[in-house]
Design goal:
7 helices, globular, 10 strands, 221 residues, four-stranded antiparallel β-sheet
Length: 221
């Protein structure tokens, strides 16, 4: 499904190149559930952002669904992202001025879709995530767990092939965190590929394999 070949990421500083990722080689098959672990500053989030096309490698190749991401134009990358990838952030990234319903509907507005079709998809997701009663509330009126549920609902509404999750339970209590991880497990069983960055050994066990990063390198699997 996706492949990174000899990927480096660095930032130029007065003292020279500051490497964040070094020589990353990674292959992910459709339907896998992968956990990326490592200490703070090891490059986990940078790697996830490159996979999510929010950042570009300084050097190396990235192939996603047989497309050479490192060669195509920004507009094509944006299309690939919108069509195939859902991103779940630790800090939720909901839009404060929009209701739960409007937040979930947002990704669909970028697709040429009839209003009735959008309504039907949002209704299904609200029902599935048991948040129908919250649809007219604003993010500030929700608990952390509810906000993260809305964030995941928004990420999966377009039926992505790949979900990227950056510390998805980092701001939640253990019960809320467990519910979110069970939800990811369920989505994965339905064929969605999931790559999560996590500090939690427990959350990592939900994945089918773990990739350990240290100082920007893949240490071991």
């Amino acid at each position: 499904m996706l492949q990174l070949k000899n990927v480096f990421k660095w930032y130029d500083t007065k003292a020279g190149k500051n490497f964040v990722l070094r020589d990353i080689n990674l292959e992910v098959r459709q339907g896998e559930f992968i956990s990326i672990m490592g200490p703070s500053g090891s490059g986990k989030s940078t790697l996830l952002h490159i996979l999510g096309m929010m950042d570009e490698p300084s050097e190396g190749e990235y192939h996603f669904i047989e497309q050479p991401v490192h060669k195509i134009k920004e507009k094509q990358r944006a299309e690939l992202y919108k069509k195939h990838i859902g991103f779940v952030f630790q800090a939720y990234h909901l839009i404060d001025e929009l209701t739960v319903y409007e937040n979930i509907e947002t990704p669909l507005l970028y697709q040429s879709m009839k209003s009735s079709e959008r309504q039907s998809l949002v209704a299904d997701i609200l029902d599935r995530f048991n948040i129908v009663g919250k649809k007219d509330l604003f993010p500030s009126q929700l608990s952390g767990g509810q906000q993260q549920l809305v964030g995941i609902a928004r990420a999966v509404i377009t039926k992505p092939k790949l979900i990227l999750a950056d510390e998805p339970t980092g701001n939640l209590n253990s019960k809320q965190g467990e519910e979110i991880m069970d939800l990811f497990k369920q989505l994965n069983s339905e064929g969605v590929t999931i790559i999560q960055v996590t500090h939690s050994e427990k959350n990592a066990t939900y994945g089918s394999r773990t990739i350990n990063l240290f100082d920007g390198r893949v240490e071991k699997e």
